[in-house]
Amino acid sequence: MRIHRDTSYIDDADRGASAAIGNFDGVHLGHQAVLRVAAEAADAPLGVVTFEPHPREFFAPDAPPFRLMNAEAKAHRLESLGVAHLYELAFNDRLSALTAEEFARDVLAGTLGLKHVTVGADFRFGKGRQGNAEVLQAFGREFGFGVTVADLVDAGGEEVSSTRIRDSLSDGRPEDAAAMLGHLHRIEGEVTRGAQRGRDLGYPTANLSISGLHPPKFGVYAVKARVLTGENAGEYDGVASLGVRPMFGENLPNLETFVFDFSGDLYGAHLSIALVAFLRPEAVFESVESLITQMDADSARAREILARSSSQ
Fold this sequence. Notes:
It contains ten helices and 16 strands. It has helices at residues 29-41, 55-59, 71-80, 93-96, 100-111, 133-143, 162-170, 174-181, 197-201, 288-307, and strands at 2-4, 18-21, 46-52, 85-90, 116-120, 124-125, 131-132, 146-150, 154-155, 158-159, 185-190, 206-209, 219-227, 234-243, 254-259, 270-281. The longest helix has 20 residues, at 288-307.
């Protein structure tokens, strides 16, 4: 997949895609339906037009974190679904000021040179969200690109949405989130150095920041670990603690993963950690010994759960 972050110029070979447009936070089943429609709508490479930062982050930078995925995780998921071109538009003052007509004419038809565009039925675009799917279809006829509007997707009689997925994660129900996502919820990033306290406890962990992401319920999870880079690249099972580590008085949330049956250095590697099942909330223990006893029990339970789980 080619990622186009500098969209001031698009080479002729990278124009003419059939692209789905949206934020695609989570790349859930509704997003995947839009991608399938886009892939079938025109005889052209499959593309995605998305925005960084998310427009909601741009307009409300001090709001609580809400994103299900960072840009890295979103790109990996889109690539796995067959996207050939990811056009990552910089959402800034200039882009946010474009009218619906200007966005359709200057960006979609002009800069990107799209052959076809697919959007969800609830799509809005342009300054003040003035444009909708019907308006985009009219602009498509005027500026020379096709437009298809994909129906919204429901699961269990309810519409699939990033909001419902966030609610499931907040409640410690990663299985319900996965049912709407169509894949396990993953947190991705580079492994950073922590206090290395886990090593002293016999449970060395790989630490990932969750900064900027919607925080799932704090606690301990059975996880699938995917090492994306380095000599240890591959798939592993594990157990992870997500939260503020109240036992040690620390309060910056992060994700600490103990990878089962692994020996090696993961510092600097990029990991993708999938939340499979919530085991228990965070807790403060009477002693380090009681904490280790609980960690042993957590690991045993995680192994049992993961033996029945498939990687996604």
